Amino acid sequence: MTNAVRTAVVQAITDAQTLLDRLKGTLAMIDGEVTVDLGRQGIWTKGEVVSLWEKSKHLSGVRSLFEITERHVGERVTFSELIAHSGLDAKQQANEHARMSRIAADLFGGKRWPIENWQGSKGEMIYRMREEIAVWWREIESQPGTPLVIN
After folding, report:
1. Which of 30, 46, 117, 134 sits at 20 to 30 Å (Cα–Cα) from 52?
2. What is residue 81's three-state secondary structure?
3. Cβ(105)–Cβ(97) below 8 Å
4. Helices then strands (H, E): number in the chain?
5. Residue-level pLDDT, tens digit, the chain, 151 residues
6. Kind plus residue range of the DSSP H or E element containing 143
């Protein structure tokens, strides 16, 4: 019985999050704001990407994640490729991802990224940036006082 109740509560939370995402998307449309639906990563606006970036851009592993996925926009980037790009060891890279997740949770009430991520069939994390997010990130990075780092 406890498992059935737990399952029902988990489903209710999922349903509530889905409703919140839809409402947020509707409000953004009413306000004339463009949104990008990243599925389980939620609906994003440019303003949200700006907020997350401003709070996490000091983390070199996060910067590397944005850089490499932007360079390979729409393509899959593996964790191995990411750490080769960042120069960090796997533990430090993972720690910086965890930090960005905490920043997102503080800002948006849940861990979500503007970069799709999932575990591949071989157990390695995979990342992908959608074109719309890449356009926003390029605009954000090209603002005065925010130098674009190219490795």
Report:
1. 30
2. helix
3. no
4. 6, 5
5. 678 888 877 777 766 666 666 666 566 566 566 677 877 888 889 889 999 999 999 999 999 999 999 999 999 999 999 999 999 999 999 999 999 999 999 998 889 999 999 999 889 999 999 999 999 999 988 876 544 444 3
6. none
